[in-house]
């Protein structure tokens, strides 16, 4: 490699250094993944079955007692956003945009996050937990099927969680990146509140969706990072610390 090539590589490494440090901060270590798994399993065992948890009732009533100054409309809007057709449509657009920008790794990562939503019906069947009933709390959405974990919130955790983690790699400028991360984080929180507010899910259903969705995102992140680390270095290219293949100029 010539001196020019080394200099070009150093400049590229310096420019990506800050983003690399951010990515390292949000990388999921194996102990964190195991902690998520244990928490998800413990809550699932507590929530499983026909019984209703006392704290589920208390928290739901507390959330529903908030003054309805547009909270109902906001809850219905965010619930519509988290529905399967809407999330699949948004995800398809995002995946197509990443492929168009020649970012196949990120596109496949996001596609895998969308596909992981298929695990929700399996979890619901295993834990067989009911939804809220009008005898206990206010129910303004006629939702059918089992409750734990919430499909809406789990799907939002997978999609928005994946976007949140990819943000440092997709958006180089700090301001727009923080906006993207702030919006996705706000949608995640609002999605959980919306399901509780309309009486579609118990708080345990929502927390379980965050845990199981977060666990699946963590698994996808570990797989993504492992694949990027073993990606072969091709002739005439080097791999920077962000895992991208950088083309080098050749001296005559």
Structural features, described:
The chain starts with a helix and ends in a 5-residue tail after the last strand. The C terminus is likely disordered. It contains ten helices and two strands, in the order ααααααααααββ. The protein has one domain: Vanadium-containing Chloroperoxidase, domain 1, CATH 1.20.144. The protein has a two-stranded antiparallel ribbon. A hairpin with a 5-residue loop joins strand 1 and strand 2. With 252 residues, it is an all-alpha fold.
CATH class: Mainly Alpha
CATH topology: Vanadium-containing Chloroperoxidase, domain 1
Q: Could you spell the SSE succession in H and E letters?
A: HHHHHHHHHHEE
Class by SSE composition? mainly alpha
> Which whole number gives the mean pLDDT?
82
Domain tally: 1
Provide the helix percentage: 55-70%
Largest sheet: 2 strands, antiparallel
Number of helical segments with 4 or more residues? 10
Q: From the coordinates shown, what is the CATH architecture?
A: Up-down Bundle
Beta-strand content:
under 5%
Name the overall outline: globular
Oligomeric category: single chain
Distance N to C terminus: 12 Å
Radius of gyration in whole Å, from Cα?
A: 21 Å
Which regions have little confidence, pLDDT < 50, spanning 5+ residues? Answer: 21-26, 232-245, 248-252
In what order do the strands lie side by side in the largest sheet?
A: 1-2
Number of strands: 2
């Amino acid at each position: 490699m010539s001196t020019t090539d080394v200099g070009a590589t150093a400049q590229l490494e310096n420019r990506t250094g800050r983003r690399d440090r951010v990515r390292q901060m949000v990388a999921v270590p194996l102990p964190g993944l195991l902690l998520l798994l244990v928490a998800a399993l413990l809550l699932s065992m507590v929530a499983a079955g026909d019984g209703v948890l006392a704290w589920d009732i208390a928290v739901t009533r507390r959330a529903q007692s908030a003054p309805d100054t547009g909270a109902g409309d906001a809850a219905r809007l965010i619930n519509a956003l988290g529905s399967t057709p809407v999330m699949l449509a948004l995800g398809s657009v995002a995946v197509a945009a990443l492929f168009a920008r020649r970012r196949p790794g990120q596109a496949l990562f996001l596609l895998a996050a969308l596909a992981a939503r298929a695990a929700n019906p399996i979890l619901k069947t295993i834990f067989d937990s009911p939804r809220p009933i009008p005898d206990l709390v206010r129910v303004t959405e006629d939702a059918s099927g089992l409750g734990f974990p919430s499909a809406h919130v789990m799907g939002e955790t997978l999609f928005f969680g994946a976007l949140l983690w990819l943000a440092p790699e997709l958006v180089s400028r700090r301001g727009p990146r923080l906006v993207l991360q702030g919006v996705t984080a706000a949608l995640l929180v609002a999605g959980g509140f919306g399901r509780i507010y309309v009486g579609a899910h118990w708080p345990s259903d929502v927390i379980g969706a965050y845990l199981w969705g977060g666990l699946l995102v963590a698994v996808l992140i570990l797989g993504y990072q492992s694949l990027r680390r073993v990606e072969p270095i091709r002739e005439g290219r080097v791999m920077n610390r962000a895992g991208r293949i950088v083309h080098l100029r050749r001296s005559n």
